[in-house]
Write a structure and sequence with these properties.
Blueprint (H helix, E strand, L loop, with lengths): L15 H12 L13 H14 L14 H4 L6 H4 L10 E4 L4 E4 L2 E2 L6 E3 L1 H5 L4 E2 L1 H17 L5 E3 L21 E4 L3 E3 L12 E2 L5 E3 L7 E3 L1 H12 L6 E5 L2 H13 L4 H10 E2 L11 E5 L17 H17 L2 H11 L18
Length: 354
């Protein structure tokens, strides 16, 4: 169920008939071919412009205001945060991009009371990251366990101690990426644990592997608490959280229902994204932090914003709107409302296999 917007507030997505009228007219001249990304810059730009002109920008589409500590009720003297040791931040250095880079002095993420590494991660020594990423993950697990006692966060791939490829992933090269498994509810109440990378459908119910299908449910409350902790972390800036569109919508609707600050919800809507040219990420979060200030200019957040790249992304969103599920159509509508002059980083990057 989609929660209603507060009285008097602008709708956070487009009205269906207004957008449908524009896209039906525009796309009658050019239908995307399934499984391909068009690169006709001029035509795609006209389609994007038609959408943006037809639907004026609303406050929800504007760049998100910074999330202040008062919004998130952060305690700067929190002993858990202090325990990580700010001096350690200078030891790790992320170099290059997430797809082509390396990591100097990677910090090891270790098992703890509220955190466990998935078996292959330690075996393959891919549990390293920048200090900023490692402390953000550890603190997030502790924050969720504080509010939901007994919670244990399971962690997949991070990076090698010196970075580089970890195949089959095309990112995770520079210590700023981590695969984090979802919290799940055992619907049978037997106290079991879902298989690593258990996949969830549009309703948030497990549909793979077969033995877990129907038994486990995406724990929206705990997964939102984790996202909230990440976005409120004062030592790291979240760049993207890759997750499937249906699960993204469950999280955002939950945040609205429980009365989270508008600044936090807007920020979450911008970073929670379903990538393209990749799995939809219905079985784990892939979180990426921005380059730490101390690592610039050696660390690079993304590529150069080109007209061709932006056109390909807009085209992929138009294709998702026409051929995707209702949840993906909602997601495409939200992103197509970005101002025409947006930089490339305002649209989610095209990811490879992960």
């Amino acid at each position: 169920m989609v929660a209603a917007a507060p009285p008097g507030a602008h709708s956070p997505w487009l009205t269906g008939w207004a957008l449908a009228a524009v896209l039906t007219c525009a796309c009658s001249q050019r239908q995307p071919t399934p499984g391909t990304v068009q690169s006709d810059v001029s035509t795609t730009a006209q389609l994007a412009a038609a959408v943006l002109v037809a639907v004026p920008a609303t406050p929800a589409a504007a760049p998100a205001a910074p999330v202040s500590p008062s919004d998130l009720q952060l305690d700067p003297d929190d002993p858990e945060r202090a325990a990580f040791g700010a001096a350690a931040a200078s030891s790790s250095v992320s170099i290059g991009t997430a797809q082509n880079g390396r990591l100097d002095n990677g910090v090891s993420l270790q098992d703890g009371e509220h955190l466990r590494l998935v078996g292959h991660v330690r075996k393959n020594a891919i549990h390293y990251g920048t200090w900023e990423l490692v402390q953000m993950i550890a603190r997030g697990a502790a924050d969720v366990a504080r509010d939901h006692p007994g919670s244990v966060l399971r962690i997949g791939n991070l990076s090698r101690q010196t970075g580089g490829d970890i195949g089959p992933s095309v990112s995770h090269n520079s210590g700023r990426d981590a695969d984090v498994l979802f919290y799940a509810i055992d619907r049978l109440g037997q106290g079991g644990q879902a298989a690593p990378f258990c996949r969830f459908d549009a309703a948030g119910v497990a549909d793979w592997p077969t033995e877990d299908a129907g038994r486990y449910e995406f724990d929206t409350a705990r997964n939102w608490a984790l996202v909230r902790s990440w976005l409120g972390n004062v030592d790291a800036v979240v760049q993207w959280i890759f997750v499937s569109a249906p699960l993204r919508n469950l999280l955002l609707d939950h945040a609205l229902r429980i009365g989270e600050p508008a600044t936090l919800r807007t920020r979450a809507a911008r970073v929670l994204t379903q990538p393209r040219d990749s799995s939809p990420h219905a079985d784990h979060f892939h979180v990426r932090i921005a380059c730490p200030a101390s690592d610039r200019p050696a660390c690079l957040d993304g590529g150069v914003a080109t007209g061709l790249a932006r056109a390909a992304q807009v085209d992929a969103l138009l294709q998702m709107y026409h051929q995707g599920s209702p949840e993906e159509q909602r997601y495409a509508r939200e992103l197509l409302r970005l101002p025409e002059a947006s930089e490339l980083h305002d649209l989610p990057p095209i990811e490879g296999v992960d």
